[in-house]
Amino acid sequence: MNFKPVKVKKIYAEIVEQIKDQIKAGKLSSGDKLPTLKEFAENLQVGQSAVREALTVLEAMGLVEIRQGGGAYIRRSQTDETIEPLSMMLLLERDLSLEVLHVRKFLEVGAAGLAATQRTAEELLTMEKALRKMEKDIQSGNLGEKADWEFHYAVAEASHNSLLIRLMHTVADNMRVSMKTNRRLLFEQNGMPKKLYEEHKKIYEAIKNQNSMLAEQNMYDHLYRVELYMGHIDLVEKK
Description:
Blueprint: H1 11-24, H2 37-44, H3 48-61, E1 64-67, E2 71-74, H4 85-92, H5 94-118, H6 121-140, H7 145-158, H8 162-170, H9 172-186, H10 192-208, H11 212-238
Antiparallel strand pairs: 1-2
Helix pairs in contact: 1-3, 2-3, 3-9, 4-5, 4-9, 5-7, 5-10, 5-11, 6-7, 6-10, 7-9, 10-11
């Protein structure tokens, strides 16, 4: 018989499970305020970074609302906004999150190349609008994950490849969740918001100039760098 090695659950994943269990048991209800990072960390005897990441995951799941300067609260039950089980796995298992990036490279590198030759003036305007929204979000201190998704989906639509667009639809929910979680973690690194914006702008410029090879290269470089950044975070966690 063949058995797979037992994986030790990461600290933040254990915190997520504890809070979910408290909600299911009715010990935490809609509107309840959660302890501060310091209180949580002391109570659970873990680092504040693990608590912060757990809250980020719970927010992406739609279970917790993080208010700027006001703490974290249990959200009102909104089933349609709660992510599917596969998306939960993507949040709790960083390896799966990286696999989403691998899939994105297969889909989006080719999409960028096609978009450079197929895009219309209207589709360029859609990309520009997403970039302006992304820049505004960065200036306001927001994550900008919606603008991020809108940009990448606009590139896919500009490819005019119906199968590719359908495949993007298939992984859309997982991509949006992954983008939000990745951005929250990446934005803790100095200068990262501006770097990500500039990478998107380079992709747009190549598509605008109808340079198919450069569009593909810029998209690949962007996704590869995000993969490296996320890998770096994993290495820090394991130390």
